[in-house]
Write a structure and sequence with these properties.
By secondary structure, this protein is an alpha+beta fold. It is built from eleven helices and ten strands. It binds 3,4-dihydroxyphenylalanine (DAH).
């Protein structure tokens, strides 16, 4: 049988053990494990003492029970304090290690760009699509009939010399113009027709600072009752205002194409100088951008469309030329060299 002094000494011993052990604890997990030695309901030393209280003889029980209770409360508070302290230190460490310096310069990530010709083509298509045009595909290989004859340019026609053609055989050739899309469309569809043709890859034996043997065009065709040059100009005004900025206007000049009558060259008012005259417009205030006209009666007839009932307008436009004007590129070769220093500058949103 232990006397009260001995019982109290066991309380003091546990207290000392806790105080000593606490000094070595390094983190909240260790606190948790250490705490179990004393307060675990089954094996904890303090829990054991509590269980033993009922076996202490009467006169000592109250005293000892009080002492054990105080020990239990004291230990509970100490462990809570230790746990809070450790957790606060751990949280601080974690915040430090996860801290983000929002003033750091961003890491540069490479971004891809659409090719300038693709960008301009998408823009032009969007503009015409918003006016209700359908988009048809063009062909890279045509036969003589679609590229020339049906477009009122028979074999011996002098206008054939306007386009230096790459022949694949006496019959087949690399498309020199997207105008063949007019014939393909009118053969398939009866008026009313409103179409633009893309992607428009065309080929001509021509090569200098403003010409490339391969380039792109976009072709447009409208066939309906009472189509006039006014419709053409109104529509082109919408195009150029969207492409080059509000207030850009068009001017029609008489020209010649076998498949249109009358034919026109279309100029836009210089969007660089506003028409005063600058290097871009060579002092004239105007820049030539496309060919157009009223579809020649013979072309409608070739597609079995009655020219007395219907009339049409057509236009064809070089996309490289538009891209060069819009993005300030002065040599067409820059569009084909895949030089990222050039291409990265052209991101037309
Ligand atoms: N096909 C012509 C060329 O390549 C451009 C053209 C002019 C197309 C007048 C047309 C047009 O549709 O009406 O030079």
């Amino acid at each position: 049988m232990q006397n009260l002094e001995e019982l109290k000494a066991s309380i003091t011993a546990i207290k000392d053990e806790i105080l000593k052990g606490a000094a070595d604890l390094k983190n909240s997990k260790e606190v948790y494990e250490f705490k179990k030695n004393f307060l675990d309901p089954k094996v904890g030393k303090i829990s054991q003492l509590m269980k033993g209280v009922k076996d202490i003889p009467g006169e000592m029980r109250a005293d000892f029970g009080k002492g054990v209770n105080e020990l239990k409360n004291w230990a509970g508070e100490r462990f809570n304090e230790m746990d809070e302290k450790m957790k606060a230190a751990e949280a601080k460490l974690r915040y430090e290690s996860e801290k983000i310096d929002v003033t750091m310069p961003a890491t540069h990530s490479m971004k891809g760009y659409l090719h300038p010709v693709t960008q301009i083509r998408n823009r032009v298509i969007d503009i015409f699509a918003s006016m209700g045009f359908e988009v048809v595909e063009t062909r890279e290989i045509e036969n003589d009939y679609y590229n020339f004859t049906a477009l009122n340019t028979p074999q011996d026609h002098p206008a054939r010399d306007m386009q230096d053609t790459f022949y694949l055989s006496p019959e087949f050739l690399l498309a020199t113009q997207t105008s063949a899309a007019q014939i393909h469309t009118m053969e398939k569809k009866k008026p009313p027709i409103k179409m633009v043709a893309a992607p428009g890859k065309v080929f001509r034996s021509d090569d200098d600072a403003t010409h490339s043997p391969m380039f792109h065009q976009i072709e447009g065709l409208v066939v309906d009752k009472k189509i006039t040059l006014c419709d053409l100009q109104g529509m082109l005004d919408v195009l150029v205002a969207n492409l080059f900025g509000e207030g850009t206007k068009t001017r029609l000049r008489p020209s010649y194409f076998p498949f249109t009558e009358p034919s026109v060259e279309v100029d836009v008012s210089c969007f660089e100088c506003g028409g005063k005259g600058c290097r871009l417009c060579k002092g004239t205030g105007w820049i030539e951008v496309l060919g157009a006209g009223i579809v020649n009666r013979k072309v409608l007839e070739n597609c079995n469309i009655d020219p007395d009932e219907y009339s049409g307008l057509a236009f064809g436009c070089g996309l490289e030329r538009l891209a060069m004007l819009k993005y300030g590129i002065n040599n067409i070769k820059m569009l084909y060299e895949s030089d990222l220093r050039v291409l990265e500058q052209i991101d037309d949103k």
